[in-house]
Design a protein that fits this description.
The chain is an alpha/beta fold. The chain has helices spanning 17-28, 43-49, 64-76, 90-98, 111-124, 174-185, 193-200, 211-223, and strands at 8-13, 32-38, 54-59, 81-86, 103-107, 148-151, 154-157, 162-165, 168-169, 191-192, 230-233, 237-240, 245-246. The strands form three sheets. Strands 2-1-3-4-5 form a five-stranded parallel sheet, sandwiched between helices. Strands 9-8-7-6-13 form a five-stranded antiparallel sheet, covered by helices on one side.
Length: 247
Amino acid sequence: MLENWPTSNALVVGDIETRRQKLGHLLMLHGWMIRWDAERSHAIAWVKREPPHLVLFDCCPMQSAALDDIRRMHEETLVPLVVVGSHATAEVAARAIELGAEDFICEPLDRRLFLARCAAVRRRNHTSRPGEGVRTSLEPLGPESFKHGHFGPLVVDATTRRVTVDGMAVPLTPAEFLVLERLARTPGVPITDRELVTQTLHETFRPDSSIARFHIHRLRKKLGRYSYMIESVRPRGYRLTVERSVT
């Protein structure tokens, strides 16, 4: 599954040891290095001390405290988070993603799909060393000095990977930030679905793919009354529509 990648390591988090071991063993059989002995109460401290490439967060049983842990993990670390939930509803899965999870995988697990989705999150957030946060393998687009873009009420800081609207922080998943940063590098220039999927998110593009549309929809929702700033361009593409200043 990961034979063309540098060794990837993951931290499996959860309160049930046998489940942590089962999930960790499944990843380990397919090339991951695993540390599976982190309970939820110790997870954030562990990630800050020894940051992995991926956190696999077991939410069994699913409780409101688990959702709060997901939010804190997203806000306090730069490590992508994949959540595994037992018989979770679509509403719970959507809420976990809104709080910062990169993906939510429902049980019972399909082994092949589980491994593919973990690998996809790893690709989207590829960096040779864990703990470096979101990185993209794209060469710089637009001004090479792009670090900090002001777009009216929207500010995109590529150095800290922080986004604000009217001075208020906007929590984004790593994938959402990559999409917004790509649009921010060349405001006014349409970026196709294919480019966002293959070059920014490093996914396989299919004509019927909804990956780009999904992230654009979530970005617009988080921009609130400024959702119009991400404009759809026919036949299939998007652009950031406002003037900017770049530092």
